């Protein structure tokens, strides 16, 4: 039997909470000391962690940032269910059991990656942007949220052709890294684009020359309607697109197949597990347009 790429890569670790910050909209940023997992983590992967001793089921959280040198991991999550509400009550100094890193990461191949994150789908994009800090050209990050962003937006000093001039809101961390970012929301937040992330991305794409546009690849994580719209946008411009899916899961190691989703290929539909076959997939195989572009469909 051939070796599986996810085998012998996971670690189980007692992670100590270093920071736990609350933000508007029931959002939390959690930092834990987990050196083994931090040393192995890649953008697009996630961990499966215990939220509280009284809750038997673990919860999957996408990795927001990782520091192999300092040995910590960071997560952004929203307290929307019983498990994450219990997690929100955990204090600095507490320990939580962590399994990870899990899943297939993003594989960036294009010179001009555009990273699109919506809501709690923002973490993989920020993590990927950090990995691409020395990428040439630098990536463009477009983030959307219908609750206040878990950071204070800053007017960007990095110009972006095609972006409406009044859309200047940026994520401070990305700005400090020299990575251009723009924010979108329907909530009339100052400096944000008053629409969807895909509409804002379209503004930027239309300002590129055909040669520049041919160098673009889209990468996204967020709610299902957003991901569908990103794939449709990619199909319209004939761009490669990778998306990260979020699903309920029990084991997160591929054994239960509870997170399986249908993936469309040239040979038919196949079920794939989000935890180990994903969470990153070719977007065209998840939400195929009317006809798959020959350069973007995969088996």
Topology:
Layout: E1 11-23, E2 27-33, H1 35-40, E3 46-49, E4 59-62, E5 65-67, E6 72-78, H2 82-88, E7 95-102, E8 112-118, H3 122-131, E9 140-144, E10 154-155, E11 169-170, H4 172-176, E12 181-184, H5 197-206, H6 210-213, E13 216-221, H7 224-237, E14 241-244, E15 260-265, E16 268-273, E17 280-282, H8 283-286
Parallel strand pairs: 8-9, 8-13, 9-12, 13-14
Antiparallel strand pairs: 1-2, 1-7, 2-6, 3-4, 3-7, 5-6, 10-11, 14-17, 15-16
3D architecture notes:
This protein has 8 helices and 17 strands. The protein is an alpha+beta fold and 299 residues long. The chain folds into 2 domains: 11-102, Translation factors (Elongation Factor Tu (Ef-tu), domain 3, Beta Barrel), CATH 2.40.30; 112-245, 3-Layer(aba) Sandwich (Rossmann fold), CATH 3.40.50. The strands form 4 sheets. The protein has a 7-stranded antiparallel sheet. The chain has a 6-stranded mixed sheet with strand order 12-9-8-13-14-17, with helices on both faces. Strand 13, helix 7 (224-237) and strand 14 (241-244) form a beta-alpha-beta unit.
Number of DSSP-assigned strands: 17
Q: In the CATH hierarchy, what is the class of the largest domain?
A: Alpha Beta
Q: Give the topology string: H per helix, E per strand.
A: EEHEEEEHEEHEEEHEHHEHEEEEH
Taken from the alpha-carbon principal axes, the silhouette is globular
Overall structural class, as computed from helix and strand content, comes to alpha+beta
Question: What is the fourth-level CATH superfamily of the largest domain?
Answer: Nucleotide-binding domain of ferredoxin-NADP reductase (FNR) module
Mean pLDDT: 91
Strand numbers in spatial order across the main sheet: 4-3-7-1-2-6-5
User: Low-confidence segments, ≥5 residues, pLDDT <50?
Assistant: 1-6
Q: How many strands, which pairing sense, and closed or not: the largest β-sheet?
A: 7 strands, antiparallel
| C-alpha end-to-end distance | 20 Å
Based on the coordinates given, report the CATH architecture of the largest domain. Answer: 3-Layer(aba) Sandwich
Number of domains: 2
Give the number of helices: 8
Q: Give the DSSP E fraction (strand runs of 2 or more residues).
A: 25-35%
What CATH calls the topology of the largest domain is Rossmann fold
Radius of gyration: 19 Å
Proportion in helices: 10-25%
């Amino acid at each position: 039997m051939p070796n599986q790429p996810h085998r012998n890569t996971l670690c189980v670790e007692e992670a100590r909470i270093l920071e736990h910050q609350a933000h508007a909209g029931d959002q939390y940023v959690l930092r834990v000391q987990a050196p083994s997992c931090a040393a192995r983590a890649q953008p697009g992967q996630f961990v499966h962690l215990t939220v509280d001793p009284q809750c038997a089921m673990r919860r999957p959280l996408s990795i927001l940032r990782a520091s192999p040198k300092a040995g910590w991991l960071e997560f952004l999550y929203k307290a929307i269910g019983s498990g994450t509400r219990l997690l929100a009550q955990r204090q600095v100094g507490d320990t939580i059991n962590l399994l990870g890193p899990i899943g297939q990461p993003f594989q960036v191949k294009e010179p001009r990656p555009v990273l699109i994150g919506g809501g709690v789908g923002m973490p993989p994009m920020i993590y990927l942007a950090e990995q691409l800090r020395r990428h040439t050209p630098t990536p463009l990050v477009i983030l959307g949220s219908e609750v206040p962003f878990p950071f204070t937006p800053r007017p960007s000093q990095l110009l972006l052709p095609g972006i409406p001039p009044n859309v200047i809101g940026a994520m401070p961390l990305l700005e400090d890294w020299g990575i251009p970012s723009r924010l979108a929301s329907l909530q009339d937040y100052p400096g944000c684009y008053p629409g969807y992330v895909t509409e804002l991305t379209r503004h930027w794409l239309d300002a590129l020359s055909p040669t520049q546009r041919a160098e673009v690849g889209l990468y996204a994580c967020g709610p299902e309607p957003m991901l569908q719209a990103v794939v449709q946008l990619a199909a319209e411009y004939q761009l490669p697109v990778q998306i990260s899916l979020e699903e309920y899961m029990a084991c997160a190691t591929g054994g239960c197949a509870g997170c399986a989703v249908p993936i469309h290929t040239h040979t038919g539909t196949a079920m794939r597990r989000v935890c180990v076959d994903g969470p990153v997939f070719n977007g065209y195989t998840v939400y195929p347009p009317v006809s798959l572009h020959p350069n973007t469909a995969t088996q």
